[in-house]
Amino acid sequence: MHFGRFVVKNVTRNKRRTAFTVLSIGFSLFLLIMLYTVLDLLTNPPSTEASALRLAVRRSTSIAEMLPLSYQQKLEQVPHVMAVMPLQWFGGYYKEPKNFFGNLATDPVKFWKLFPEYKADEATKRAFAADRRAAVCAPDLMKRFGWKVGDRVTLKGTIFPVDLEFTLVGASDFELDKSNFWFRFDYLNEAMGDMGQVGSFWLQADSPESIPGIIQTVDTMFRNSPAETLTETEKSFQLAFVGMLGNVRLMIGSISLVVVFTMLLVAASTMAMTIRERMREVAILKAIGYPRQTILGLILGESTLIGLLGVGLGILLAAGLGHMDVNAMTMGFLPFFKPPWSVYGMAVAVSAGIGFFSGLFPALQASGMTITEAMRRLE
């Protein structure tokens, strides 16, 4: 007997039941892949050569509190610091609250040096520096709202009690940020009546080896001042920002546990019904001399194959989502959807585990029966 063919034939015997089981496992694993892809993007932001040299200086007490703008002059005197610029989250929206996207105020000249990942032509850079009300944004954002260069765009303030009108002077393209909107900090500061404060400063170090010394120097400089600082790498700053959402890892882990447990119950129910219907076959296999290990392997092979078919469907759905415009679907929250191989590997391992353990109890029960017990169960 070709055992592989026997397992495949048993899986396809009740096509409707198998199809529904595979669908339930597949969609559940697709959800699992989505959750862990988002978690990976939030906790392991992509790094570039330039981002490895960037440092964020913020208030030590809270990321939401502001620093005196006068700190910039002192930061520019720190050894091994190549450039310093202010960065302020504005948090405005366009026309309606649902039209929300990231909008930040910064220095129109130093921005391009500290963030070379954002690509723009020289004419756009000059126009950004020349006009106090100038703004640049991602091409995807321009397409979303039908903007073009020269248009006037008004953002309604939420954090700051002002509505700001901008002139769009060009595009700033970056693969990992499809919904950026950048404008000048001096314009915001002026609109707020010279508030003299900013949410954070961003520094560019001359080398990765200089970073620990810069962090120590900056935080020591402002220790015991009315506004103490916390200087950290770009990745640490992003993780602190994610931390404002709560314990994301615990939340996603809890949801995943519920999803896996539900899949296990569905698969176990399917295998229990399947084996109960095949007691005659179990009795016949025992009668013609097949050992317990063979029967155990056949049943476990069937349940594991169902689990692997489910993960195949889940991976296909995830791959399909990766070819869609995820940036537009999530309004800029996810610039793209590209699960890492570790997430796919986790999904395969979970599906194989679900298949194995869902069939383990029915397999042990069926393989341990005597021929008489199997026939009695059949009656």
Explain what this protein looks like in three dimensions.
With 379 residues, the chain is an alpha+beta fold. It has two domains: 3-45 and 247-378, no CATH class; 66-226, no CATH class. 53% of the residues lie in helices and 15% in strands. It is built from 15 helices and twelve strands. It has helices at 3-11, 15-43, 71-75, 110-114, 122-130, 139-145, 185-191, 211-221, 234-243, 248-276, 279-287, 292-322, 326-329, 341-367, 371-378; strands at 54-59, 67-68, 81-89, 93-94, 103-106, 134-137, 152-156, 163-171, 181-184, 197-198, 200-205, 229-233. The strands form two sheets. It has a ten-stranded mixed sheet. A two-stranded antiparallel sheet has the order 2-10. A hairpin with a 6-residue loop joins strand 7 (152-156) and strand 8 (163-171). The longest helix has 31 residues, at 292-322. It is elongated and about 90 Å long. The mean pLDDT is 84.
Features:
two-stranded antiparallel sheet, alpha+beta, 379 residues, 2 domains, 15 helices
Main pleated-sheet profile: 10 strands, mixed
- Binned, the helix content reads 40-55%
> How far is it from the N-terminal to the C-terminal residue, by CA?
28 Å
Strand content: 15-25%
- Our Rg estimate from Cα atoms comes to 29 Å
Q: Please state the average pLDDT score.
A: 84
Sheet with the most strands: spatial strand order:
4-7-8-6-9-5-3-11-1-12
Task: Give the ordered list of helices and strands.
Answer: HHEEHEEEHHEHEEEHEEHEHHHHHHH
